[in-house]
Amino acid sequence: MTRRVEIGWPALGTAVIAELDERNAALAQSVWDALPYRSLQGHALVAGHHLYHVAPVHALLHQRGTHTVDRREAPDGTLFASRLQHLGIKYGELTEPMPAAPIGQVLPEHLDTLVESGAAIWESLYRSKKPIVAEVRRAGEPGGHSLPRLSVADPQIDALIGEVHAETERIWLSPPEDLADLHDGHIPSGAGSFSTVLTTLVFVNGETRPLGYACFGGLVRAAYEDMPLESLRHMARLLAATPAEFLGYCGLGRLHEFTQRALGGLDRISSRDDFAALMAHLALYVNCLGGWNLQLFPWHLGDGLRRKGALG
């Protein structure tokens, strides 16, 4: 069966078609099953010519790719599914030697459009700060958007998941007010020594990304890899409490509140599946925050700091 995916950027008036393949069949199927959706489009800030966005696909957190390649050596236009909950597309030179799971390829006739779109998305992230939304759909079918909602047995934990899901939906395509305030310099706690703001922004970015990628996402993987439930509870308390508290101090109060309630309710959870569901919703929420933080961050302040020997 041919499975073609259209990835479009309405703000740019561009779109490309990619064909999914069987190199990582389960990952490709998970993405296919989640279509259609929309997401804030991001761009690599360290690795090079690479686009990625947070995909609302819980399975990406724990599904392991059966076939990986060095992204640097993959053809331009390769689609990747990442356990960081990203759908990525290589469109030029990459420098980071990261093993990645390919799931498809942009059609050759659309590669020029991909490069054009990549340049515009970089400008959006680095300088103009005008968000660009990616629309991902099955080629030839209508678009749309929804975020998956998992359920668990305990009513209190299920209600918390409902709140996290609702908040994630609310901020999915609109900048969260607390992050926007932080980037505007409104920090009620006074975080930022001697009234600095950039220092706080750097630390918020440095804590938010690993909290979603490594902590909550890692706990989902651990649950699916059969770590005992009591060990999962213990690791969640060890890994999540301190960064969430710090981020709350910096202005992300809702994140801190959700994390406190989740950690406080861990003893109510009676199965690894329910634990994984709670952590998956927290991961998606924090990964969404992380995407917005990257979009809002004033990267252009680094114009005067260039790699030695860099051409541009």
From TrEMBL:
<dbReference type="InterPro" id="IPR040602">
    <property type="entry name" value="Cucumopine_C"/>
</dbReference>
<protein>
    <recommendedName>
        <fullName>Cucumopine synthase C-terminal helical bundle domain-containing protein</fullName>
    </recommendedName>
</protein>
<dbReference type="Pfam" id="PF18631">
    <property type="entry name" value="Cucumopine_C"/>
</dbReference>
<feature type="domain" description="Cucumopine synthase C-terminal helical bundle">
    <location>
        <begin position="157"/>
        <end position="296"/>
    </location>
</feature>
